[in-house]
Amino acid sequence: MPKYYIPSKIAQHRVAVIALYRALLARCSSAPLPIKDQTSLRNAIRNKFRQNRKIQSPFQLGLTFRAGYETLDHLDALKAGNAASAGYLSSLIATLPRRTISPPPIWRRPPPETTPSRNPQACLPDDKKVLNVRPRVQLPPGKKRRVPILSATGGVPFLRLTRPQPPSLSRMLRQKLARREDLFLRRVEFKYYWTPIAKQEDEWDALLRDECGFRDERGEGSWMQAVNDTIEVTWESMSKEYEQAREKGRQMLEIVDRETGLALQEGQTVFRGRRRRPLWVLKPEKTKKKNGNKAKA
């Protein structure tokens, strides 16, 4: 067991301090003092508690508690009409330093630290987009070819080129996935929530038409027709996005295949999957022939 405890971390000490602090502030608000004196005394109490919150000496803590309880007793006596307590508090407020009676500083949460991106460009121009640039037939001298990896998240294909993932790619994936989710939820909502309501509205319109003779003179059509049109438009948008994703996936797969062929022609070994546990390894033709000649020898 430790021989010494930090008072601010002991529950009993914290409860006593908070109780004294709240009692002093409550008595200041209800004491029969001028508003200016109430404000000065309240600010002095706040500042003193803020200054003494890290005191660890038992002797200093005892003096601080004694001063606080004496002030609390004088405030209670002042409320009861004691003239001596009124004179004591008036002299106390008059002797307080100016910096003590000013309101304590307001703590504001610091803004989050954002690390600026190395590439502040929000989106690549058309002449630098991956589908328009790849595959690169010729590389700068001394630069090794990196075969992109075809990946997909939520049915959205993309090419993984470097790590960490570029912010523009992350933003594009978030937007596409959010768009797909919105379309799916809209279709579910109209199919399972608005369809029963539309059927009941059509039944009510039919009842009014048969019983009361009301007619739809504006020609707006039935409720079910509007709901079905919305479901159909939503499904067409979803199908269009799925088809675009499939087409882009085919283009990206073609880029990966051509980049792989160029890398093999340059004498590189291409790994599929993780390097430590690859799914398969593609080696250039020269390496295969050399290995075959060694095996024959």
UniProtKB/TrEMBL annotation:
Regions of compositional bias (Pro residues) in chain numbering: 103-114
Protein name per Swiss-Prot or TrEMBL: Complex 1 LYR protein domain-containing protein
One Pfam family here: Complex1_LYR
Domain Complex 1 LYR protein span(s) in chain numbering: 16-73
Start and end residues of each stretch annotated as Disordered: 103-123
The species this protein was found in: Corynespora cassiicola Philippines
